[in-house]
Amino acid sequence: MLGVLMAVFSQSTSTSVVVREGQSAQMNCSVIGDYETFISVTWLRQTDQSAPVSILTTSRRLNMDGTQYHNSFSCKHMTASTTSSTSTLEIRSVSVSDAGLYYCGTQPGNHMIYYNTTYLNITAPESPDTADNGELCSGVTVLLVLGVLSAVLNLVLLILFLTKHREPDTPSPSPQGQESGMLTFAALGFTEREVGGGSLFRDDTHTCVLYFASK
């Protein structure tokens, strides 16, 4: 008896995952099934418009997990885990040959239902020179910022020091001011003077010297 297997594609979202060569990649797929009794999920990969290739099939029956690999794929490179609503495919140490379109499907009866599609894009690994240059630029930037902050702090401290210890200038006296500020004196003399009827009244003559300062 010849059986017919139908394929049904469910409405799902398409995502893209970008990883560097040598890193690990994880892709998730939403599934529908009776998780308590039995669920079987198959992961497939398609590259360059070629026919899809089965990678592995994970099944869960009465709390017993099992994974079957197809087409020379092995657990050393790919593993899968399935929960009640999500199946996750993990690829370790990816290479350029792992790039392609990945999706999963379930077989609840005589037909397959395919779900989320994920495109895995592999980029070149980061070169040591690029990493060293990034660390060097980061270190130079930190040193430059610290140098600028130190210079600004020193300038502020210098301004505060000069402002605190600055004294007002005392103007020096000019020669003219010195002359005007000198003490001067005048001599006053008292002599004989005539009193009434022509007689002379003699006063002792005293000489007084008065000092005063003029500015």
TrEMBL record:
One of its GO terms (cellular component) is plasma membrane. SMART domains: IG, IGc2. The keyword Glycoprotein applies. It is found in: Cell membrane. InterPro entries: Ig-like_dom (IPR007110), Ig-like_dom_sf (IPR036179), Ig-like_fold (IPR013783), Ig_sub (IPR003599), Ig_sub2 (IPR003598), Ig_V-set (IPR013106), TCR_complex_component (IPR052051). GO terms for biological process: immune system process. The chain crosses the membrane at residues 140-162. Keywords: Cell membrane, Disulfide bond, Glycoprotein, Immunity, Membrane, Signal, Transmembrane, Transmembrane helix. PANTHER family: T CELL RECEPTOR ALPHA VARIABLE 4, T-CELL RECEPTOR ALPHA CHAIN V REGION-RELATED. This is Ig-like domain-containing protein.
